[in-house]
Amino acid sequence: MQSPQGSFLFDLDGTLVDSVYQHVLAWDEALKAEGIELSIWRIHRKIGMSGGLFTHMLLRETELEISPERIERLQKRHAEAYRSRADAIRPLPGARQLLAYLTEAGVPWAIATSGRMETAAPVLEMLGVDLKRVVVVTRDQVKYAKPDPDLFLTAAARLGVETLTATVVGDSVWDMLASRRARCLGIGLLSGGYGQEELERAGAYRVYEDPADMLKRIDEVAGRA
């Protein structure tokens, strides 16, 4: 009996592109514009979850009123502040090479991000991802984002692969939690700022520094084409 082919479902920010801290500063700017003071480290710990859940948690921590209008303003301010920093975003070391290797080897892969297409599209273009050929799932396309599994379940379905044979690659505990809920294996990358122990406790069975480190050790995790 032939074994099912493995596949990879990639997060975007902090996993393939060096953009986590642009998101942190953009949220900081958006919060300050609303008169909300919150430590940078608290913002960073929530990067990777959906924007809606992110704002709910932040406002709950500050014990301020949570209204739909305020959440919408925060999300719009964040998107504007993030776009103003887009020129500083770069692919992480080895990201393009890793994706090219998987493509050449015939290993299916997709991208599933908690970001909305308005912020993800320019980054995907900079990464060289052809939206006509690559499966990309954004927050706009699912009911719930990370740590819920919807993004990865949708990406696997669109790839035509079983989640039990798929591996999620992400940089945050939210990616790892979502991967466990989707019944996927999880690989953690340190390039988003989370520590190795945090990622392992959340479910990562391998942890690498960045895409370049993962590519160097691809024999540890890649299924046969």
Automatic annotation (TrEMBL):
<dbReference type="Pfam" id="PF00702">
    <property type="entry name" value="Hydrolase"/>
</dbReference>
<dbReference type="GO" id="GO:0005829">
    <property type="term" value="C:cytosol"/>
</dbReference>
<dbReference type="InterPro" id="IPR023214">
    <property type="entry name" value="HAD_sf"/>
</dbReference>
<dbReference type="GO" id="GO:0008967">
    <property type="term" value="F:phosphoglycolate phosphatase activity"/>
</dbReference>
<protein>
    <submittedName>
        <fullName>Haloacid dehalogenase superfamily, subfamily IA, variant 1 with third motif having Dx(3-4)D or Dx(3-4)E</fullName>
    </submittedName>
</protein>
<dbReference type="InterPro" id="IPR006439">
    <property type="entry name" value="HAD-SF_hydro_IA"/>
</dbReference>
<dbReference type="InterPro" id="IPR050155">
    <property type="entry name" value="HAD-like_hydrolase_sf"/>
</dbReference>
<dbReference type="InterPro" id="IPR036412">
    <property type="entry name" value="HAD-like_sf"/>
</dbReference>
<dbReference type="GO" id="GO:0006281">
    <property type="term" value="P:DNA repair"/>
</dbReference>
<dbReference type="InterPro" id="IPR023198">
    <property type="entry name" value="PGP-like_dom2"/>
</dbReference>
